[in-house]
Amino acid sequence: MEPNETLTWEDVVLRRVRPEFADELHELIEDGREHIASWMPWAAEQTYQDTVDFLARSVASWDSGETFNYSIFVDGRLVGGTGMMTRRGPGTLEIGYWLHPDAVGRGIVTRACRAQIAAAFALPGIERVEIVHDAANTRSGAVPARLGFTEVERVPTDTRSKNHTGLDVVWRLNRSGATVS
Fold first, then answer.
1. CA distance linking residue 90 with residue 119, whole number of Å
2. pLDDT by residue (tens digit) across 110-152?
3. What stretches of 100-180 adopt beta strand conformation (E)?
4. How is the chain split into domains, by residue range?
5. Per-residue pLDDT tens digits for 5-58
6. Residue 37 phi, psi (nearest 5)
7. Of 18, 68, 104, 152, which has the fewest Cβ atoms less than 10 A away?
8. DSSP letters for 20-34
9. Range 6-174 classified under CATH 3.90.1570.30
10. Could you tell me the end-to-end alpha-carbon distance of the chain, in angstroms, rounded to an integer?
11. Kind plus residue range of the DSSP H or E element containing 84
12. How many CA atoms lie within 13 A of 14 on its CB side?
């Protein structure tokens, strides 16, 4: 089973990524490259072909049930990306996200995560939703804290971008007792 291809929370609309988003997505990455790459190493040298390839992989990984990637839209405008990934093991979906710098600080990711949490817990067998971020990325860490997640561990990891400390913070929200509002 898979989540809906379109998720909505208030003014935030998440749409399953599609190959036809390539031009708009790549333009967004190009325009916000410095900000995005400070936490997302893939953005540092992302070419148009890399974007096309990412979208093709996203279609395949959605179809296989491995990853559910969405583009984030507000008022019809693409502002970032998010996704739910199965890489944290059975019964768990991990949410990841990034935004163009013009969209930061407006609660967009919080609303996008609310939509994904509701979708995740509507799927059979999903007992936990996790968010993982670098310890220095306090804006990213504010999202799970705001949504009632509990910090469960800090894990040493390789530094992946110029701002990474090499310490990932893992947050968890369990199905039991989870409320999304």
1. 16
2. 999 999 999 999 999 999 999 999 898 899 999 999 999 999 9
3. 128-134, 150-156, 167-174
4. 6-174
5. 999 999 999 999 999 999 999 999 999 988 888 878 888 889 999 999 999 999
6. -70, -20
7. 152
8. GGHHHHHHHHHHTHH
9. no
10. 24
11. strand 77-85
12. 29
Tokens coding 164? 């990474």
Collect all residues with Cβ–Cβ distance below 8 Å to 114 and sequence separation of at least 6: 9, 147, 180, 181
Measured torsion, CA atoms of residues 134, 139, 143, 149, in degrees rounded to the nearest 10: 40
58-64 long-range CB contacts below 8 Å, 24 or more apart? Answer: 58/17, 58/83, 59/17, 59/18, 59/19, 62/2, 62/16
Amino acid letter for position 84: M
Residue 180 DSSP one-character state: -
Q: Report the candidate in 68, 39, 10, 46 with the shortest Cα–Cα distance to residue 140.
A: 39
Contact at 8 Å (CB) between 137 and 165? Answer: no
Place of tokens 């971020």: 133
Name residue, tokens 């990984």.
61
Residue 35 has, within 13 A of its CA and on its CB side, a CA count of: 15
